[in-house]
Amino acid sequence: QVQLVESGGGLVQPGGSLRLSCAASGSIFTINAIGWYRQAPGKQRELVAIIRSVGSTNYADSVKGRFTISRDNAKNTVYLQMNSLKPEDTAVYYCTADVRTSVVIPTKDYWGQGTQVTVSS
């Protein structure tokens, strides 16, 4: 089993910053891609940013230039630095990881419980 635990959400004013963290634990052999999705009320879950084991990244167009994703492989942790936050960034942010638990078992996607980010004055 693999667990993903997010932290760092909260209430911030427009233009402010937050840093989300997601720590993966459990029976981890390797983590391929790991990253963040978000879901606002009444909307579909959408990709925010993802980082692969080789370090390549993808960002949603709406967050490019404002958000930065990074990972610490030794700690099995991914971070999302969010700057210049806007009210439209308000959502529940979910961590997801593509994890291999054994050399012979295919990778599987795992999800965290989510952390609320609210951008409001």
Characterise this structure.
- The protein is mostly beta strands.
- It has strands at residues 2-7, 10-12, 18-26, 30-39, 46-51, 57-59, 67-72, 77-82, 91-100, 108-111, 115-119.
- 31% of the residues are buried.
Instruction: Specify the number of helices.
Output: 0
For the termini, the CA-CA separation is 40 Å
Helix content: under 10%
Radius of gyration equals 14 Å
| Count of distinct strands | 11
Which class do the helix and strand fractions yield?
Answer: mainly beta
Write down the overall geometry: elongated
What profile does the largest beta sheet have? 7 strands, mixed
Mean pLDDT across the residues is: 96
Unreliable parts: none
Features of the shown structure:
mainly beta, elongated, seven-stranded mixed beta sheet, 121 residues, 0% helix, 11 strands, four-stranded antiparallel beta sheet
Give the topology.
Layout: E1 2-7, E2 10-12, E3 18-26, E4 30-39, E5 46-51, E6 57-59, E7 67-72, E8 77-82, E9 91-100, E10 108-111, E11 115-119
Parallel strand pairs: 2-11
Antiparallel strand pairs: 1-3, 3-8, 4-5, 4-9, 5-6, 7-8, 9-10, 9-11
Task: Produce a short descriptive summary.
With 121 residues, the chain is mostly beta strands. Helix content is 0%, strand content 56%. Strands 2, 4, 5, 6, 9, 10 and 11 form a 7-stranded mixed beta sheet that branches. A 4-stranded antiparallel beta sheet has the order 1-3-8-7, with no helix packed on it.
